[in-house]
Amino acid sequence: MAMTFHRFNKRRFFKQFWLTFRPYMLNGYEDPHFEDKIQNIYEQLKPLYLQLHAYVRFKLRQKYGDVVSETGPIPAHLLGDIMAQNWREIADFTLPFPNVGDNDLTQELIDQNYTAIQIAKTAEDFFKSLNLTEMPESFWEKSIFTKSEDKPMVCMASSWDFSDGKDFRVKLCIHITLTDFTITHHEMGHIEYYLHYKNLPVKFRGGANDGFHEAVGDLISLSVLSTKHLRQIGLINTNIDNRVDMNNLYKVSNSVFRPLLKIEINEIIFCF
Ligand SMILES: [Zn+2]
């Protein structure tokens, strides 16, 4: 089947997108300078991001040749995620020190016979270690941790507050992978938030703003991936040299490119 390439008219896309969603997206941030502050943070990250972007382009050109231009847009699907939201899937051939490898934590989880429930219990232990709340009994009874085989089910991870102050659940299809390990922590981060405002009047049971709920989960996910924590819970058992550590950090950075989508759109071509 022939493929057609559609070049984004980025200016028109962003103008239209922003005009439509701006009031909705800024609702709740309560700071008249919020946009300026975000722009400022973005400008601080941009030099690092540009270097990473150039490095990834170089590696993609080594693998795919002239399909990836030296200066033009990068086909999004070559980044391993059709929306180019993260670049995890290209880590295997872009590691900065390919000969020393990295910690294959998915394999470690499998080797240690982790189950879906065990992954969730490990996440709970992490929150408890921060002096946060343990999950209520009903959470373990009513949540879904693995994909149901006998009925149709959408696997997108989610967490739910049933608003009665008692019933909190996650819906996950946990596979024994590092990705699902971090997603489980992220979703439980939402539950922690729910638990902490459960006694407030309904009006106050919500995140401070749209970003805050997600930020709690993502911040937790990043902490969970630190070498120190992984060693503490026995997923890293050997001494690792700095190059392996650098490979691991590079993989973590590949997971957090999503906030920089703005510049990616400048540089990426989508293929349908
Ligand atoms: Zn979330």
Automatic annotation (TrEMBL):
Its cofactor is Zn(2+). Disulfide bonds join C155-C173. Its EC number is 3.4.-.-. The active site is at E187. Binds 1 zinc ion per subunit. Chloride binds at Y29. Pfam families: Peptidase_M2 (PF01401). One of its GO terms (cellular component) is plasma membrane. One of its GO terms (biological process) is proteolysis. The keyword Kinase does not apply. Zn(2+) 1 binds at H186, H190, E214. It is an enzyme of class 3 (hydrolase). This is Angiotensin-converting enzyme. It comes from Acanthoscelides obtectus (Bean weevil).
